[in-house]
Amino acid sequence: MKEVLTAASDVVGCEWISPLEVTAAIHRRLPLRRRGDAEKRWWQIWAGMVPVTLDGQLYELALAAAATHRLRSLDALHLAAALRIGCTRMLTFDEELAAAARSEGVAVAGT
After folding, report:
1. Of the CATH numbers 3.40.50.300, 3.60.20.10, 3.90.228.20, 3.40.50.1010, which one belongs to the domain with range 2-109?
2. Residue 90 region, left (φ>0) first, then alpha (ψ -120 to 50), else beta?
3. Full-prediction pTM beyond 0.85?
4. What is the mean pLDDT of the chain?
């Protein structure tokens, strides 16, 4: 994961959703002693990301992604954001999101 994250230069994230998802994952999955460094690194990455605005069009794309790929709501929003801006690759450690992205022609790092 470290290599993927440190190499990111053209990274986008879904406005408001990405920080919530990453913060939740850090606090759910990492031991207390590693959380501070992980959060610091995340906010450094986020500062260089281009947020995709969550609007009605993105919501419609996410509805379609959720129905087509049977994704959870936040995963559908992430995939919709990637598709909306024409991403050719994305980072995820979620197998269902990775499979959905690949089926839409988006390469996946992390899984």
Report:
1. 3.40.50.1010
2. beta
3. no
4. 86
